[in-house]
Design goal:
This protein has 14 helices and 3 strands. The protein is mainly α. It has 2 domains: about 190 residues, no CATH class; about 140 residues, no CATH class. The protein has a 3-stranded antiparallel β-sheet, with no helix packed on it. A hairpin with a 5-residue loop joins strand 2 and strand 3. Helix 4 runs parallel beside helix 11, helix 7 runs antiparallel to helix 8 and helix 12 runs antiparallel to helix 13.
């Protein structure tokens, strides 16, 4: 019993030591390679930046990932223990091989071969590659937080191997959420914006509002006679909220998975619904601009997204939970 307790205490201390070492190394890497992150952090946390276009979404996804990590801390700790146990088993197996062949030239050669076995160093090589990728990424304020997280993940992989599975998935989800709107803006700016402009102008004309568009520009005269011209970019068409939806859907599938067929239909329904709430938002903005002028349009532009998307996602979450059988024990 004493031997068992001492082993448990040693394992607990060893885990705490590794976590402390991870924290120190990660902090050192951020101070050496990512000084811009620390100098930009006050700006990135300011309300003006957070509630600016695209910036609230990444912070929101990051907060949800951290909450998920907190809720799954027992699973993460179990993964760390399993990773350590697997490493220990590999080490013992290599030692047995060396011991059996000891005393002969073949044994010595095989012992060295086992010692440098690539399988043993896979976590280290992978972790170093992840850290290198974070350091060598082009510097951009949009990716500063992701770079720091990626470097920290690399160190985590080096120290814990397969125990980094859940943190790796969460960093990937966060990376997707910030990359999706930026990728749309760079590679599909006009095409993505037209998915909103064409139906918005078409519906407004059907309703009797004289909107005209030239490319991404929409022109109309308000009811008070004020000429208004606004540009509807890809950002206005909702790629940020689409990225957030996909990230949230991934978190929900991790926590409460549904059967593949049901997941496909839920995902498609969510994508269409997320596009539709962006469409409704633009309709509201055009109506506000027509009836109350351009100043009112821009006021509505700044707050409508923070009302419509949460309301839509609450509806989607309710439907998802019903499908997952988590509401009232019912499966629909």
């Amino acid at each position: 019993m004493r031997m068992k307790n001492s082993k448990l205490n040693f394992a607990f201390c060893s885990l705490n030591f590794k976590l402390t070492l991870w924290l120190i190394i990660s902090l050192a890497l951020s101070l050496i390679f990512f000084r811009q992150f620390w100098s930009s952090l006050p700006t990135m946390l300011s309300p003006g930046w957070v509630f600016g276009q695209y910036h609230a979404a990444p912070w929101g996804v990051l907060a949800l990932c951290l909450i998920f990590l907190r809720l799954k801390r027992k699973d993460v700790l179990e993964g760390l223990k399993v990773g350590k146990l697997e490493g220990s088993k590999v080490g013992k197996l290599e030692g047995l091989k060396v011991g059996r062949l000891e005393g002969s030239k073949v044994g010595r050669f095989q012992g060295w071969k086992n010692f440098i076995n690539l399988q043993t160093f896979k976590p280290v090589l992978l972790g170093v590659a992840v850290v290198a990728a974070a350091v060598l990424m082009p510097s951009s304020q949009d990716y500063l937080v992701f770079q720091v997280l990626l470097a920290s993940l690399g160190v985590f992989v080096i120290l814990f191997g397969r125990g980094a599975k859940i943190p790796s998935i969460l960093v990937a989800i966060y990376g997707f959420a910030i990359s999706f709107p930026l990728a749309i803006q760079r590679f599909a700016e006009n095409a993505y914006s037209q998915t909103a402009i064409v139906p918005v102008v078409g519906l407004m004309n059907i309703l009797g509002y004289p909107l005209q568009n030239q490319g991404q520009w929409v022109h109309f005269t308000s009811s008070g006679g004020e000429p208004i011209s606004v540009v509807i970019t890809s950002g206005c068409a909702g790629p940020a909220t689409m990225g957030v939806f996909i990230a949230l859907f991934a978190l929900m599938m991790l926590d409460m998975p549904v059967p593949p067929k049901k997941a496909v239909w839920l995902f498609l329904f969510g994508v269409v619904g997320t596009w539709f709430q962006s469409f409704i938002r633009l309709i509201i903005l055009m109506l506000v601009g027509y009836h109350w002028g351009e100043a009112a349009l821009w006021t509505a532009h700044s707050w409508t997204i923070y009302i419509l998307f949460p309301l839509w996602y609450l509806l989607f979450a309710y439907i998802y939970f019903r499908q997952a059988g988590r509401l009232g024990g019912l499966k629909v």
